[in-house]
Design brief:
nine-stranded mixed beta sheet, alpha/beta, UDP-N-acetylmuramoyl-L-alanine:D-glutamate ligase, 11 helices, 22% strand
């Protein structure tokens, strides 16, 4: 199996809900569910890899408080070299709604101080050579994002394929944020975005056309994956062929981190040299299971099924 690493945002999630309708100011609402858990795109993907029995490395940082210590404990020896910043640890309070959607309130906390030096303190390029690095949380990790060129140069020098999922910008998909993302994608081997993000970045109205447009601007032989929620997923592979996967019909319990779980399962399958169709199918299946179980369940070690089709 090829080596795997994830680089980006690890923070604390406090999930409460469901909440409907939105509470009026000055009132108190009692909810049925609460959960304090490891969060952030990098954190969610790493937890999925761990549950799937996949070996991986994770580069992140934490704040200098009880939440930071808790996060380090959650990742054990993998967090031994994480930088501890003087800021408080980033906290996201997520409110779930009866339709499965959610609203987040996030403090900036420690994440902006995550740097390229912090990445190099954890990851060994020679050890990751020939593998995949998932880069995420781009709009939260200011210091690292400002030096992405250095990260891409490092990855290129060691033959590490970079997969990008920036996450949703706090300021929305402004022209500046779109342009920055397109620039990063030009250095990437894989794009892992949801449908809304893909359409916005490409400025087109259909996901297939948008995926082709994004791939055209990426490295030669790149793969673009579009996560479509209940409609499954599609991908344009290195040979330019379209691959699609249908999503199982499940009762949604918690969609938080669904895309991150998908990313983890997709890359885990790819790292085992599975065909693109199989990778897409496995990722869709694992993500669907995760969002429909409480406590969350990923299905254990990965099993592969050919349940998609490819066309030119």
């Amino acid at each position: 199996m090829r080596p795997l690493a994830v680089i980006g945002n690890v923070n604390v999630d406090l999930i409460v809900g469901p909440v409907a309708p939105w509470p009026a100011a000055g009132t108190e609402t009692v909810v049925d569910h609460d959960e304090l858990r490891v969060g952030g795109q990098a954190g969610n993907s790493a937890l999925a890899w761990e549950a799937l029995g996949v070996d991986f490395e994770i580069a992140a940082n934490v704040g200098d408080d009880q939440f930071g210590r808790w996060l380090r404990e959650a990742f054990g020896s993998r967090a031994d070299k994480w930088q501890v910043c003087p800021e408080g640890t980033t906290l996201s309070v997520g409110m779930t709604h009866p339709d499965g959607e959610r609203t987040f309130f996030t403090t900036r906390g420690h994440l902006p101080r995550f740097s390229l030096a912090d990445v190099f303190a954890v990851l060994d390029g020679k050890r990751l050579s020939g593998g995949y690095a998932l880069l995420c949380g781009s709009f939260l990790t200011d210091d690292l994002t400002g030096n992405y060129d250095g990260f891409f140069d490092w990855a290129d020098s060691h033959g590490i394929a970079v997969a990008l999922d920036t996450g949703w910008p706090m300021g929305g998909w402004t022209a500046a944020n779109c342009e920055a993302t397109r620039t990063w994608l030009s250095r990437c081997d894989l794009a892992l975005f949801n449908e809304v993000e893909t359409l916005t970045l490409a400025g087109l109205e259909t996901p297939v056309d948008a995926a082709h447009e994004i791939r055209f601007r990426m490295k030669k032989g790149a793969t673009v994956v579009v996560k479509r929620g209940p409609q499954g997923a599609l991908a344009i592979g290195p040979n330019g062929a379209l691959v699609e996967a249908a999503a199982p019909n499940v009762r949604v319990v918690d969609t938080i981190g669904a895309g991150d779980v998908f990313n983890a399962a997709f890359l885990a399958a790819l790292a085992q040299d599975q065909p693109l169709a199989t990778c897409l199918s496995a990722a869709t299946r694992v993500a669907s299971r995760a969002i429909s179980t409480l406590p969350r369940n990923y299905g254990g070690p990965m099993q592969f099924e050919d349940a998609v089709h490819e066309r030119a």
